[in-house]
Amino acid sequence: MASLERAMATGAYAVAYEQTTVNGKTVNPYFITVFWSENRNDFYIKFYGDAPYRSATITHKWGSGAKLYGMIAGSTGPLWGRGGCEVEFLQGNYSNNAIPSAQFNESYMPWYGGNNMKIFTSTFDVEYPDGYKGKPIPGDRRNIKYLALGDSFSSGEGDTDKNPATDQKYYRQWTDVNEDKAKGAPREKCHVSTRSYPYKLANWMGLGSGPSAEWASVTCSGATVYDMNWDNSGGYEGQDSPLGRLHGYDNKGTLQGMALNEMIPGRVKQIEFVKKYQPKVITLTAGGNDVGFGAKLTLCANHESWGDSCMWAKPEYRSWLKADLKYQYYSLKSLYEDLKKATNDQAKIYVLGYPQFINGDPTAQCKNTFTLDAREREMITNSVTYYNRVIKQAAKAAGVKYIDVENAFGNHWLCGDRDSHVTAITNIFGANGNERQESFHPNAKGHSDIARKFATELGGVSPLRYAICENGRNSCPDSAATINTIEDTEYFKKGQTQDDLRVINYKLSNGTATKVQEKYIEIKTSRRPYKPWKKVYVKIYSEPRDLGEIEADKNGEINGSVALPGDLPAGYHTLVVSGEAPDGKKQELYQTILVKGPNPDDIDENGTPDKNQPCGAFIQAANKDEDLDGIDDACDPEITDPILYTARNGKSSLGEDEDRIYLFRNTRAANLTGVTNDYVDKSKNQNSTDALVGHTLSEETRGLAFEKLVIMKEDDSDIKKGTPIVLAKDINEKCYALKPENYLSPALKPGSKDYKLRGLIKLNKLPKGVSCEKE
Ligand SMILES: [Ca+2]
Ligand SMILES: [Ca+2]
Ligand SMILES: [Ca+2]
Question: Closest ligand to 596 CA?
Fold first, then answer.
């Protein structure tokens, strides 16, 4: 495997598959074979013959005697029926000129004895024969026209829905992985969703998908300007600086090389992809993490004293907040300039602002944003507006195109009166299968909104062709767009910034501290020096308390510790280090930190064991579940209409038939469905509330794949009369509607006397107004 990793970093590889043939037509792929070489210059793909008898072989380059490796990674599933175990076995090394099966025939040739192997993706160099008219070998990444850069607002963070086909979230491979240091696998939480706006823009530009796509998203949740720009690119150890996610990995170089070839975000600076692939179009969101937007929201949504606003929403801290937002102008401007330089000004660069995601109206009704009060919502909306002006000004100064998406969601925002296109608070410590970082981000519908707004901003002209400047160039810097001419807002006029004060969100400590056990909190700075040998002052907010002083060393760095007061309440706090920067200006570095109580079973010190709190520690449960999905509405990412039924494809892990669709009734909704005597199988899951209503039984309905569930109300006034209709697709993507034979209670346990299995009936036509298409 180390050899294959090397191939992905520095060599070349091809993934090929063989297909079975039925009646002269190729159908299911079965054996999957991977070929690789450790050095890019050892092998290339050479063609023999021409269509329809064309074949291609992986051949040595002149003078090379290196090995070509091959591995069959075959799933027994398709060969020996469903439910077979996954196997992987190594076929061995092919040395020198003996390459028995690295040959790919374009069409099935039974008389020829061809192996009918097709290439799925390949990074080998290819020598196309003269007059070649066929399709290029898929996977050639040298033609990337569009690169999406950015942070969580571009990655698709917060797309918490599960794909019914896979029962997983829509996050792309390599972007939702927990750390496994023993296996050399770093933590990868870039959360790139395949339903994010860059996917929609790429589709609009016609850049394809899969291994031959002419674009890639290398966005990553949590990315700051530093994770995208040119600064210290060689010494970078992956996101989450100062200690990056690759810190301490001895295969760091391999992991980074592989990331550049495989478009894996979070391991190298985003600008490295720009340098390597020279895209024609770049889109990005940047700066949100630099002002600690997520951390501030966490603080405000979980602030320590209930019934009081968090510090950032208080008038006395407004000038701080403004300074923090305003001075990002410089780093944003230089990021845009770095990107221009990396492409020799040959790319069209589109900088998006941030969308308003929560209703700031003090009278708005909020369902699941728990403690964000009116003053906090006012602070959030005003910060988004002002920060967008900062971003726009920096974009103007650098001469790139600013895209205004501020009102993309309309009133489909949190605390709005329409269905929300934003994921609300999820939870703090993983109680409902979601992660805190997913809170307050656009969902799939929100990403469609952003893509739509983007298209409107360009007047419908493709980003590949849009004229950014009047003179036909890709950038037109405006020297009048300085930091001093950023348009003020009414809200921030009340918070005049002091010209000599810099407020900077900075990772001072590891972000958490436990009282008593870790009475001292370590504080380190390096990239933001203070005046050497001068004292800095450490405070904790929002009730400001002095924690002590530390002296900066000869380089102006801080490396010391301070004691936390024992009576500091558990919860989120703001740690601040103030002092004088080397240029004599006042500098305040801050970080949101979580202070835990000493009892590991009650870290929020509220007297209730955290495991008995529906949303985990630090989130006050609403003790309400309006959509009947079992998630307390205080930490429910989305509160929908009540869930009466669910349907999905069968799971072999639960002993079900994967060829069938299963329809369940939600027994929590007994009051709405009027059925109270459902039998629920709790043998596999004690928390299950799903009662099996029926599944596809007949030959006519098996093998269809679940698409969507709709409730057809026979009488609008009475939801109890609603019939669940399952929409399903066949192998040719044709849409069918299925209805249960009888949707009364299946009160009996399967197998018991009088138990009757219920099937789903295929309807002759789709009911009025429904289709398999996604909204
Ligand atoms: Ca507790
Ligand atoms: Ca709920
Ligand atoms: Ca819900």
Answer: 1
